[in-house]
Amino acid sequence: MTNESTEFYGHLIDGKETEAQDGRRFPSVDPWRRTAWAEAAEGGREDADRAVAAARQAFDTGEWPRMGHTARGRILHRLADLVERNAGELAAADSRDMGRPVAQARAKDVPRAAANFRFFADHARLTAAEQLPADNGTHVYTRYEPAGVVAAIAPWNLPLMLESWKVAPALAHGNTVVLKPAEQSPASATVLARLALEAGVPPGVFNVLHGHGPAAAGEFLVSHPGVDRITFTGESATGRAIARAAADHLTPLSLELGGKAANLVFADCDLDRAVSWSVAAAYTNAGQVCLAGSRIYVERAVYDAFLERFTAAADALRFGDPAEAGTDIGPLASAEHHAKVRGFLDRLDGGPQGRLLTGGLDPRDPRVVRPAVVVDAAAEAAVLQQEIFGPVAVVTPFDTEQQAVAQANATPYGLNAMVFTEDLRRAHRTAAALRGGTVWVNCYFVRDLRAPFGGVGASGIGREGGVHSREFFTEPKAVVMDIAGTLGPEATGAAR
What we know:
The protein has 15 helices and 23 strands. By secondary structure, the protein is of the alpha/beta class. It has 2 domains: about 5-255 and about 460-480, Aldehyde Dehydrogenase, Chain A, domain 1 (3-Layer(aba) Sandwich); about 260-440, Aldehyde Dehydrogenase, Chain A, domain 2 (3-Layer(aba) Sandwich).
């Protein structure tokens, strides 16, 4: 039975918030209180068809793709203003859905979401296209035309921020969008779409489809022949399934998948800063970050000192109610995810699978996984090879730079890495040698939205950000004009 106070978040299709076609709903469970706080429309095939049809109509006949960058940019800046103005509602939605401390969501996620809309609105307008010199009387230039209907599938770990990372560039370049948020975190997507309508985004341009993945809304969306682009962030197994579905229609896709980031701490680093950044990299958002620096390799000369400081800092993190301002780490996002993380901790055997030094499961509270530090794990141990997506860090000593790089590269993943050193030459050498889409040196998760973002191997396909987003969300078109009027058919196929 539905509690009368339960919030409802519907699909938002063609400018209207609606129930599912068959009336089905599913609950969103507050992971701290372990009760349903909201319900969302549960999408099926008909709902996916409706959402794609609305986006298709808006693209094929509507004004949005035909607006200039300046006009679209004004609307997206208004949307950014509204995101900032409604920071409390957006932050609370993500916090209630998946346990993110509300103060962190408000201070970090909401401003970043607004910044995404502002950046891509301006980048689309200001970035130059190619104009290629020609000496045969021709004028050659490139047009970047909107690709069409974009299916954007966002994860549950940082919902609003990652929704905006996909929606903002797609809209800025004139596309229409069907956003499917994760079923664990439906609320902020609907709120964002409501604000988009208020900002002046035309009906049908930004649609939200709620529901589950396999044999449900997600599968029906990514396999839909009316979709022109698919952008997905989530686990690698789901990314493979989406790639298989996209192959039937040769739909271009961008996949930002799992990670198992290595963090190399050299003896010449600023140890206090290395510890501080390493704690942030391992435990931010309870470790539920694809970029989490969960594998920490420390040069043996400073291993003991690092481990002592790192463990003390992990133990000092404040765990509790995500609604309270002083909370550093909230609960894991769902009971299912808690069971997954618990499975990794249960495998620790004091031998090759590793030994728990501090933290881990709290027998007094089944919601809790305290920041865990694991040591003595063999290279093939599950905690070093598989993405845990929880507050579990493994600290391992190394003796040489070559050994550290080899250990760092010894997983199927390649999303990102970190290096802490004061040796400039070493910083450049290791950044070049590490396998990944991003390497942070003496910092973590510092973003420049112009830079490419994505991974290699099991961490994904493609890059987004800056001109890379333009390449993905548009169809680049070469235009060749005979300005001089001197070319004849004999010039056909000639290359300069």
